[in-house]
Amino acid sequence: MALIDVERTYLQLLSLADLDRQGASQSDEVLVELRPCPVSVARTLYHDVGARYHWRDRLAISDDDLHAYLTREDVRVFVARSAGRDDGFFELVRHADGSVEIAYFGLMGHAQGRGLGRWMLVEACRAAFAWGASRVWLHTCTLDAPAALPNYRARGFVPYRVERYQVEMPDADA
User: Fold this and answer.
1) Is the predicted pLDDT of residue 171 greater than 80, yes or no?
2) What is the pLDDT of residues 54-74, one digit of tens each?
3) What pLDDT is stored for residue 24 in this prediction?
4) pTM exceeding 0.85
5) I need a labelling partner for 121 at 20 to 30 A (CA). Which of 97, 139, 141, 159 fits?
6) CA pair distance 6, 14, nearest whole angstrom
7) Neighbouring C-beta atoms of residue 131, cutoff 10 Å
8) Which of 28-66 are b and which e, b meaning 16 or more Cβ less than 10 Å from the residue's Cβ?
9) Is the pLDDT reported for residue 4 higher than 80?
10) CA distance 139 to 79
11) Cβ(9)–Cβ(165) below 8 Å
């Protein structure tokens, strides 16, 4: 295992008026809320989006615990679909301070490079503010897709905290 330096950036959007919608139209996409999101679907979305970015935090959660989380009133999961297949998803979590976190956000490999991330991020923000968010926030790191941070910033998100840490990663030769 190799130790990799990672930088995590926290970003926020303070109002819907600050959201830049430029280039964010996707006429062939449909956004579907899964309420509640079935555990099997949540695991599939998480794996299909996150495996290439080393998402691991949910792998150790039991099905019962994940079900309990997904059925909470303060958790919402949305899937972007076109032509009968899932292209990406986002998960919103409402916090006690009135903020809404975009806890997970990502595209399937087949959906990358089409501008879909712009549209999904705009839709995530619209859903969060319609849900009564006082602000919308998220975090990304240097292990995520290279387009993630530029997309967040281009939509109007502003960084407010940076953390540096290390993670163990399998050696490339292994």
Assistant:
1) no
2) 888 888 899 999 999 999 999
3) 67
4) yes
5) 97
6) 26
7) 13
8) ebebeebebbebebbbebbebbbeeeebeeeeebeeeeb
9) yes
10) 19
11) no
pLDDT at 54: 81
Phi-psi region of 94 (alpha: psi -120 to 50; beta: other; left: phi over 0): beta
pLDDT in tens, 110-162: 988 888 999 999 999 999 999 999 999 999 999 888 899 999 999 999 999 99
Q: What is the 3-state secondary structure (H, E, C) of the chain?
A: CEEEEEEEEEEEECCHHHCCCCCCCCCCCEEEEECCCCHHHHHHHHHHHHHHHCCCCCCCCCHHHHHHHHCCCCEEEEEEEECCEEEEEEEEEECCCCCEEEEEEEECHHHCCCCHHHHHHHHHHHHHHHCCCCCEEEEEECCCCCCHHHHHHHCCCEEEEEEEEEEEECCCCC
